[in-house]
Amino acid sequence: MIPTPDMVLTQLRKGVVEYCVLACLRSAPAYGLELAERLGTDNSLLTSEGTLYPLLSRLRQQSWVTTTQVPSAVGPPRRYYEITDEGRAALETFTATWSRFTTDVRTTLES
């Protein structure tokens, strides 16, 4: 069976999206819909909001993000996510590892 582009993307997303969420939070806290828009708009990182919220819950359980409820003028309070020092350390480790990994993959694919 030859994989479809969607099948390949699904496999690639599995180990990467959580670090992309952390990268989005690096500069400022954000609520879930903001993150979904950043990761999903003209982007292949997120397929639906339904996959984002369980991921955010896991990041919170790992102490990589914290949450704060903020009142909203247009509806219920919003839960804002903020990266923690542990989350920043995890992102730094991923970034260094990713750089080496992508170089190795590119080199292998081009040889």
From TrEMBL:
It comes from Promicromonospora aerolata. Residues 21-92 form the Transcription regulator PadR N-terminal domain. PANTHER family: PADR-FAMILY TRANSCRIPTIONAL REGULATOR, TRANSCRIPTIONAL REGULATOR RV3488. InterPro entries: Metal_resp_DNA-bind_regulator, Tscrpt_reg_PadR_N, WH-like_DNA-bd_sf, WH_DNA-bd_sf. Transmembrane segments: none annotated. The lineage of its organism: Bacteria, Bacillati, Actinomycetota, Actinomycetes, Micrococcales. This is PadR family transcriptional regulator.
